[in-house]
Design brief:
The structure is a single chain. By secondary structure, the protein is of the alpha+beta class. The protein has 4 domains: 4-157, Beta-Lactamase; 175-267, PAS domain (Beta-Lactamase, 2-Layer Sandwich), CATH 3.30.450; 271-340; 363-502, Heat Shock Protein 90. 40% of the residues lie in helices and 26% in strands. It has 12 helices and 18 strands. The protein has helices at residues 4-11, 16-36, 84-92, 139-157, 193-201, 221-229, 269-309, 313-337, 346-361, 381-402, 405-411, 451-463, and strands at residues 39-46, 53-60, 77-79, 96-101, 107-117, 120-130, 179-183, 188-191, 233-239, 243-254, 257-267, 343-345, 368-373, 378-380, 415-424, 427-434, 467-472, 479-486. The strands form 4 sheets. Strands 3-2-1-6-5-4 form a 6-stranded antiparallel beta sheet, sandwiched between helices. A 5-stranded antiparallel beta sheet has the order 8-7-11-10-9, sandwiched between helices. Strands 13-15-16-18-17 form a 5-stranded mixed beta sheet. The longest helix is centred in the middle third of the chain and has 41 residues, at 269-309.
């Protein structure tokens, strides 16, 4: 479905400021639909047609009443004669009300209001509901509709939506949250049942109607700011250690003068409690990762100290390899400790692993260059931890077997090792490519007895459900070690990784 901006650009001649004005209106018009107990439809002049036509730019259904339209009609173009009241509103540039026969005995009550910006009509807002002459309405319904009429009068004068609307830090308010109607002096004229309940939560137990707003524990500052700024003001009120209520104060204007306001109250106590629980859990998890990282680094340091005391070259190499494996896992936990999420940017991890290997294998007699190509997106921490060990082993194998120290000294060559990452919707491929001496003759990965390759093969097949392949790099020398991981070990089919644009 096309967005409001796309529809305006393709069907109308509205400029950017006018489109922004309509966007601000549709950002809050769910509230107006609730107040009117009716569907609200936004029409524009379709300039793409030869004959004058109307295009439906937006539609919102009420939560307080039954919708007339079950189908999605946004983007449809109507001939002017099929929407006579809307057309008349555009032509006369004033509010038009009337009844439309729909066949049978049903009549639709339509109120078409011009949407103005800078004295120019840019669209028409239509309120449409089923007409019933004999239906009795409650005090709440009559009050809500009266408030709705005051807001559409503001729309007609170009005073709503507000020019400097405060961006809502919470979801768009709806009247079901609880509504207070306040007059120019700050006295409450009407309070909905949900608003009364919210006031009780913040410690006001006296009758709300007839009281002044500052007597409700909401305070008078919010109302004064709304009147002075002529725009919406949002406050969050805490009562005691538990209760939290969010209030949205929307001034009602008449020729830029505040004549009253509505205050929408929403009890967010449970939301804030869950927020605190989540923050506490996140803090605990990060602290756990931090301690695990510290412990792993301690173990790695002890292993390196132990390796220096060993006289056997074979034993020293084995202990150093163990320290490097522990260090690879530590890198993942360090990243997790710095993140608020339990998922990690895989490419960032690979970069840290490359630095770790460089520090242990880079020698003057064996100069090596490492590079990383591609993006891997975010991966679950468990998958990343396993992959970290696998990549570390493959990098070490590429260095040890592809670039023997004796060969590098005699020939004076430098080597290149590249990590290629290819994230697809249903898989992740990681290739470690070197330009070394290549695989031995008649090499078979299934029969290889090397510890590093055994670890890699076991982790890839059992922990990642993946496939490991080793093959010559192609022409000349070199080796390609590739790990293929299926989508079930990733976050999703794509998530943060982006498919290339076609």
């Amino acid at each position: 479905m096309a967005t409001l901006t796309e529809l305006c650009h393709s069907h109308t001649e509205l400029d950017d400021d006018q489109i922004t004005h309509l966007q601000n209106l549709t950002a809050i018009w769910g509230l107006l639909a609730d107040l009117s107990f009716a569907d609200l439809l936004l029409y524009g002049i379709d300039s793409s047609e030869v004959e004058k036509s109307l295009v439906l730019l937006g539609h919102v259904r009420p939560t307080t009443g039954t919708t007339l339209y079950r189908a999605d009609m946004i983007g449809q173009v109507f001939e002017s004669r099929h929407r006579p009241l809307i057309t008349e509103c555009f032509n006369k540039e004033e509010t038009i009300e009337g009844l439309i026969q729909t066949g049978g005995e049903r009549e639709i009550s339509v109120r078409a209001t011009p949407v103005r910006l800078g004295g120019q009509v840019v669209a028409v807002l239509a309120r449409e509901r089923l007409y019933s002459a004999d239906r009795a309405s409650s005090v709440l319904e009559r009050t809500y509709r009266r408030v709705f009429r005051r807001f559409v009068e503001m729309i007609e004068r170009g005073e709503f939506p507000y020019r400097e609307e405060e961006r809502l830090r919470h979801r768009t308010p709806r009247v079901g949250d609880g509504l207070l109607l306040v007059d120019q002096q700050g006295r409450i004229e009407f309070a909905s049942p949900n608003a009364v309940s919210a006031l009780h939560r913040i410690g006001m137990h006296r009758a709300a109607v007839g009281s002044r707003l500052e007597e409700t524990n909401l305070g008078a500052v919010m109302l004064r700011q709304a009147f002075a700024r002529r725009t919406a003001v949002i406050e969050e009120i805490s009562h005691g250690s538990e209760v939290v209520v969010v209030s949205h104060c929307l001034p009602i204007l008449d020729k830029r003068s505040a004549t009253g306001a509505i205050v929408l109250l929403r009890d967010v106590t449970d939301l804030r409690r869950r927020d605190r629980e989540l923050v506490s859990k996140d803090t605990t998890i990060r602290e756990v990762h931090h301690r695990v990282k510290n412990n792993l680094q301690t173990i790695s340091s002890l292993l390196r100290l132990q390796s220096r005391r060993l006289k056997s070259e074979e034993a020293r190499a084995a202990v150093q390899e163990s320290a490097r494996r522990v260090g690879a896992i530590s890198v993942v936990h360090e990243t997790l400790a710095q993140s608020a999420e339990d998922d990690t940017e895989f490419t960032e991890i690979v970069g840290l692993l490359v630095k770790l290997v460089e520090e242990t294998v880079s020698l003057p007699e064996r100069p090596l260059r490492f590079s990383v190509i591609g993006e891997g997106g975010k991966l679950p921490s468990q998958t990343t931890t396993t992959l970290a060990v696998v990549i570390t082993e493959l990098l070490q194998n590429a260095v040890d077997h592809g670039y023997p120290e004796s060969l590098m000294v005699t020939e004076g060559n430098s080597g290149n090792v590249t990590i290629e990452i290819d994230r697809k919707p249903d898989s992740l491929s990681v290739r470690v490519v070197d330009d070394g001496i290549g695989l031995p003759d008649q090499f078979e990965i299934e029969t290889s007895q090397g510890l590093g390759l055994t670890i890699v093969r076991t982790f890839v097949e059992t922990e990642l459900d993946g496939v490991l392949t080793l093959k010559p790099a192609g022409k000349g020398s070199g080796t390609v070690a590739e790990v293929q991981i299926p989508g079930n070990r990733l976050l999703g089919p794509w998530d943060d990784a982006q498919e290339p644009e076609v």
